[in-house]
Amino acid sequence: MTRSQETRLAKLEQARGARARRYCFYYGEEAEAEAQGLPYMLVPRPLSREEWEKEYCHAPAAEEKKD
Q1: 34 touches 17 (CB < 8 A)
Q2: Cβ proximity of 20 and 41 under 8 Å
Q3: What is the pLDDT of residues 8-59, one digit of tens each?
Q4: pLDDT (tens digit, 9 = 90+) per residue, 13-25?
Q5: Which pairs from 15-23 meet CB under 8 Å and 24+ separation?
């Protein structure tokens, strides 16, 4: 390994260790994150299969109006 590669790796390790940690909380958990004093970001909670189907699987309008 060359000297420049060693220097580059050392800089990357320092930058990686100095990087601020961020925590992900689901919507509705904001109070918990703030109470802990953590830097956080909100992410949507994964939906169960039933929740996903209810939210995104709708019958097309043409099928709904059959006489």
Answers
A1: no
A2: no
A3: 766 666 665 555 566 888 888 888 888 888 888 888 888 899 988 998 898 7
A4: 666 555 556 688 8
A5: none
Q: DSSP secondary structure string, the chain?
A: --HHHHHHHHHHHHHHHHSPP-EEEETT-HHHHHHHT--EEEEPPPPPHHHHHHHH----HHHHT--
Give the Cα separation of 58 and 61 in Å (integer): 9
8 Å CB contact between 15 and 33: no
For tokens 């004093």, the residue is: 37
